[in-house]
Design a protein that fits this description.
A: mainly alpha, 2 domains, 4 strands, B: alpha+beta, five-stranded antiparallel sheet, elongated
């Protein structure tokens, strides 16, 4: 930051510039095979006709999207009205993912701040402790959460033992349980980018703010948050996007009322009851939504950097 | 100048970090409108003292008063002083103009007034054309001037500068020195300037406090510090000097009679606190001259260094102690060959007996 001459940053020297395209080749191959190809496949499938035992018939149609957005009655012969079922599931998913993001931020920011302000020698220990639970498979962790939260689980038993409650709280199969699951699954994705940003933060900026009449609160608001904003935004995206498509937490911890897009999509590809084109269409709509969010963020970022 | 009011009164300030004491009861007065420098090697406590005045550090003991008001209990954001930081600490997400008007907005200025004042400050540091840039787009020297403008904008009663020139290259540093001194004179604000660079201190300051190991060793004008150092540390730290071990026969006020190595008895000025016995005499290398036919000191020349304007002779006294002499270069200057025995005269009043 300080002491950087204008034009000093940016592209490398001319010697390396010529190698650019060749060095990028592995990246393009990787992106092509593992990202573009599946997405194209998914897009194509969403316009095909469903086969009854899963799979597709190569017959192009808009039926999947029609089914998603429009209600034509039980036999498909009534005038089309808007189908709210799936939009509702989408809306609930956005709401749940947004809530999980807010909770992760509220807990993740102080955590990241605390770790980043420890002496360098103990920071790695803290980071290690934060990442340890993630060495265990997500499925197993989510199932464990189910055991913790169920009516006869340790949490309810503890609360009853203390006498705070006399009957077990029905925690499982609620939005609350899904929220706990999402929060627990994605918290480190909030902590780590913010940690990286806070670690790079120049604490003399806080002193400069205090010197210019900022108390702790105004320093946080006017100086610290803008300086670590890239880390916060990265953390929010890293929590929001996977939460939006999550299916383990809503499946295992939630019930029918907490159904989210991830589960909806998963169901379409599972067993004979599935509907591949419909699942693909739902996935494409989800992808579009996420892309819009990311594009808006990118546009705002570019405007701010200017 | 001595009639001026005291701007900052540092009164027996002690700062401890655990078992380490960084400041051992430091007392000094900084006058209104003066350029005051805290000079010392790294770790001497000069930056700690500055941070105690700014409020970034709580003092362990003692008081800090600003314009007669005790500010010791006040946190940094309530003190009417501003700081220019060593690495500038400009807010990277704000433009230059926003940086400079930041303190004004915090003090409740309207956006229009703050902007007007900030522009005026940018004009003072000759950066008017850069108002809309971000700090990252400026050179080190420009960032330094933004930091100065930002700290001066709220018209602090005292401006604190923490080695503000150390991140600049030599040539820029020399130019900024002149500029800084000029701005200090124009604004009339007392500057407290921390540096480890004695040349910087000598050229810019009205007064200097030389610090070492958490103590103030001497406070005085650049001339007093250079020409009348009180002890070995100050004499050695400021400029180049020879410290000769001498026998002190008699001390009478600010005069003393000493026996030079080689047996010559001379009368020299003495720092207060000098005692009879073994003492140290400070002799600046440029204050000696060759004396054909015998002088105060006799040395054996070992080597010379050609410096252009001067020639530096490295020599030894008969007892083996090293001595450096500077002779001015000129058409008539001859460089004694190694092995030559040379008689030297010390300029009258130039050798000074120190309090150890």
């Amino acid at each position: 930051m300080a002491g950087v001459a204008p034009g000093g940053s940016g592209s490398g020297s001319d010697i390396y510039r010529g190698n650019g395209p060749r060095l990028m080749l592995p990246v393009w191959v990787f992106i092509g095979i593992f990202l573009l190809l599946p997405v194209i496949l998914m897009a194509v499938y969403s316009f095909l006709t469903k086969e009854f035992r899963g799979g597709v018939i190569w017959d192009f149609t808009l039926a999947a999207y029609d089914q998603f957005f429009l209600n034509r009655g039980l036999f498909g012969d009534e005038p089309a009205t808007i189908e709210w079922t799936y939009i509702g599931i989408f809306w609930r998913s956005i709401w749940q993912a947004g809530l999980a993001t807010v909770f992760c931020l509220l807990i993740g920011f102080p955590t990241a701040w605390y770790v980043a302000t420890r002496p360098a020698s103990t920071r790695s220990v803290w980071l290690f402790l934060i990442t340890i639970p993630y060495w265990v498979n997500l499925l197993i962790r989510t199932v464990s959460m189910k055991f913790l939260l169920r009516d006869t689980g340790p949490l309810n038993e503890f609360l009853m033992w203390t006498g705070l409650i006399s009957d077990p709280l029905s925690l499982i199969n609620t939005n609350f349980a899904v929220q706990v699951g999402l929060f627990y699954s994605y918290l480190p994705f909030m902590v780590l980018p913010i940690y990286a940003a806070v670690e790079r933060y120049d604490f003399s900026l806080s002193e400069a703010a205090a010197d210019l009449y900022c108390n702790n609160w105004t320093t946080l608001r006017l100086v610290i948050l803008p300086a670590v904003k890239p880390g916060i935004v990265a953390g929010c995206i890293l929590v929001f996007v996977p939460s939006l498509g999550a299916f383990l937490a809503p499946d295992l911890l939630g019930g029918a009322k907490t159904f989210m897009i991830g589960s909806l999509i998963e169901e379409q590809f599972k067993g004979a009851a599935g509907n591949w084109p419909f699942g693909a269409a739902a996935a494409m709509i989800l992808l579009t939504l996420v892309m819009v969010v990311l594009l808006i963020h990118a546009r705002v970022q570019v405007r701010e950097d200017r | 100048m001595s009639q001026k009011n005291i701007a900052v009164d540092v009164d027996k300030v002690v700062k401890r970090y655990g078992s380490v004491t960084a400041l051992h009861g430091v007392s000094l007065d900084i006058r209104e409108g003066e350029f005051f420098t805290l000079l010392g090697p790294s770790g001497c406590g000069k930056t700690t003292l500055l941070r105690c005045i700014a409020g970034f550090e709580d003092v362990s003991d003692g008081r800090v008063r600003l314009m007669g008001q005790d500010i010791t209990p006040l946190p940094a954001h309530k003190r009417p002083v501003n700081t220019v930081f060593q690495q500038y600490a400009l807010f990277p997400h704000m433009t230059v103009l926003e940086n400079v008007s930041f303190g004004l907005s915090r003090r409740g200025w309207t956006a229009r007034d703050a902007e007007g004042r900030a522009k005026q400050m940018l004009k003072l540091v000759q950066l008017s054309d850069f108002a809309k840039r971000k700090p990252g787009q400026l050179s080190g020297g420009q960032q330094q001037r933004v930091a100065l403008a930002r700290a001066l904008a709220p018209e602090p009663q005292v401006l604190l500068l923490d080695e503000p020139l150390s991140a600049l290259d030599l040539k820029l540093r020399q130019a900024v020195r002149v500029e800084l001194k000029q701005i200090q004179r124009e604004t009339g604000i007392a500057f407290v300037f921390v540096t480890h660079d004695q040349e910087e201190a000598l050229t810019m300051s009205d007064r200097i406090a030389v610090m070492s190991a958490g103590h103030v060793q001497q406070i005085g004008t650049p001339r007093e510090i250079y020409e009348a150092p009180v002890n070995r540390f100050v004499a050695d730290f400021i400029g180049e000097t020879n410290l000769l071990e001498v026998a002190v026969r008699q001390v009478d006020g600010d005069r003393a009679t000493v026996v030079l190595p080689g047996g010559h008895v001379v009368e020299v000025p003495a720092a207060s606190g000098a005692k009879v016995g073994t003492g140290h005499l400070s002799v600046r290398p440029e204050r000696m001259s060759t004396a054909p036919g015998g002088g105060d000191l006799t040395v054996l020349v070992e080597d010379h260094v050609y410096l252009g304007t001067d020639i530096q002779l490295h020599a030894r006294l008969d007892d083996g102690a090293p001595l450096v002499v500077r002779i001015q270069n000129g058409a008539a200057a001859t460089i004694p060959a190694p092995g030559t025995r040379l008689a030297l005269d010390v300029e009258a009043g130039a050798a000074r007996l120190l309090a150890d």
